[in-house]
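Course assignment 3, question 2. Fill in each field.
Student: A.L.
Task: Predict the tertiary structure for the chain below.
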Amino acid sequence: MWSRSIIGTGFGIYEINTLSCCTIKKRGEQFMNYIAHKNEITGQIQTVKEHSENTANLCREYAISELKDFLYAIGLLHDVGKYQESFGKRISGENIRVEHSTCGALAAKDNYAIPAPMALMMEYCIAGHHSGIPDGGFPNDDADKSTLCGRLTRDFEDYSEYKKELSLPELDGLGWMKYLFQDCDNQLENVIDKFAFLTRYVFSCLVDADSNDTAEFCKEREFPRKLNTDFTACLQKVNARLDSFVCRTELQKTRALLQNQAFQNAGQDGDIYLLNMPTGSGKTLASIKIALERAVQKEKKRIIYIIPYNSIIEQTADVFENLFGKDMEILRHQSTFSYEDEENGSEDYRMAAKTAAENWDAPFIITTAVQFFESVYANKRGKLRKMHNMSDSILIFDEAHLMPQNYLQPCLQAVAYITRYLHSEAVFLTATMPDFEKLLNEYALPDCKIVRLIKDTAMFAKFQKCKYSYIGEVTPSELLARCCEYPSSLIIVNKKATARKLYQECGGKKYHLSTYMTSYDRKKILREIRQELHQLELDYPDYKDVPENRRITIISTSLIEAGVDLDVYTVFRERAGLDSILQAGGRCNREGKREIADVFVFDLSEDTKKNALDEKANLTKGLLEKYENISDVKCVDEYYSRLYFMRKEDIQKNTMHRECSDIASIPFKEYAEKFELIDSRQVSLVVPRDVQSEKLVEIMKYTKEGNVRKLQNYTCSVRQKELEDLIRQHVVDDYGTGIYCLTNMDYYDEYTGVLFEASDYFL
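Answer field:
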């Protein structure tokens, strides 16, 4: 007897034989050894059977409960192509190429053909477990194509001996299909997006299991230990820090009340928690307390702290390391950091961290939004390997409003899927909160379980430390003249070239900051600025009668708005998006020592026409005219509501379902290559600034190997066209490494950064 079930998918009808078609009988015992790996040092061999069963068991261990048996089957089948006679010859030393991954995909198709989507997911993952998840392709693709459809048409040697050695499990096809179509509302586009997400997750489990078992067999020495973190002890330290704060001023009392509101509401169960708190209200500390409490209460495996920029990852890690000490070993994961180059910490710690960086098997991770989302939408095993360790986690998105609008739907989908299907929780942290509840329900998943941690926003008004005024169009000279009237002024402009020009025209005590300068020089300038500001406050506590020669002008791009702790008297901000304006306001009167400070929003006369094309800047202008206080919650709500309405097409344009017509043709590889969150027009340029950096460049010159981690401090950012111009002038060389270095220091100034003509160019 067998039963037949029919499920309508929105793109076809699938017939599931729940008792017969998914039943695989155990075959006979092995009669010879088929070798998967050979340890070249010890001479030991690992059979295909041993490796397959080990990988299958690890797959099941890593998997969420709904997919444990499914992943066990994939683990068993992934290397059945190694039962080919030619693979044995290759292991024995013959110089031949043997394709084995596609065989596993064909075996999955043979054994689990019904339901078709279940078999298809197996095929994608197994076929790609070395080279990456392939594009689905089309039924007429021939064997020369690298698509899944093309590869499945290839001919292979007999590998059927796997049937005698491996006992494949019976799978609940009906249950699997129900899980796939959950929350999809029978809509094809929803099915495609969810299927693609789950495929990448399953792939992640498979490749990490495969890698770990292979490494375990081939190891020359014991695996390094895992990084340790005691969430309970860390929570106690956070509570002690919060208890130590003295609430004397009205602002301090309000800060404590606001934080307590968030803590009380965090006791509610949800998938995504929205923490909207004004600048200076202690958002970071509040978010980590909430994350630790949830992690302890719900027994989560890890906390992943996601920040918007590479430039602030170090200082974020330093904050937590200073707070938690030995109770927390932090994994920093960013594109420019390697624990192989790390000079601090023991060898034991460095090896543990290096291993964890490959698959995020660590309790506390700090990474960037770019690294996080590209690890969800990649197709290669190196990046996707860590994705399954996003399950059973607490995700904190610092400055969540900075998610890129052109990829907003895929980013929101990723968070919603991870929390809903991988049993994680997320905290969105920002001072300018869009209506994420509406956005998540519209673009990610219906009925997202969202908890607003701050429900009473009436106290926000007490954090108003700045008055925002639009002063209209000004010339550079008019702007600089106004700045000189104040004890200390910060001018923030939208372009690096503008910042440099204003600095060159400015008189008196002045400072300049932009990514044309190396991190080395920016840090040095920031130290000087903080010292000058501190001394100014000591000498003139009431800021009255400050002589002209002591007045300070700082000219910067938007880099100063995130993660840079400065407190100036007055801010001048070139018109931009409302979020940028409010972030700029956070650079003055930070502790509320004065009743109110001024933030002046301006347009430079020479850039007015260009700004007219900027939707965000135009919205801000209208709101400045409409609202007395643009930091008001109603103003922020209106800004994001209008912005997302105008950019609805941009929000949706880069979703997976727009790239294909059904799950069999998903372009995993093509989509991963297109999914770039970093502006590809920006290029890093190394500028040797001291003896150490000069030595690093010399080593790179002669060995053709660059230490990216150590060179990071001496790196600035230029546009691709600017780099090409420098190359034409023969002042840049990469020495065959792909890491570009400035070779003529006449093209660099420590106060303004990269020059595009030498100072003596016209002499």
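Instructor remarks: DSSP finds 30 helices and 23 strands in the chain. The CA atoms of residues 230 and 327 lie 6 Å apart.
Grade: pending
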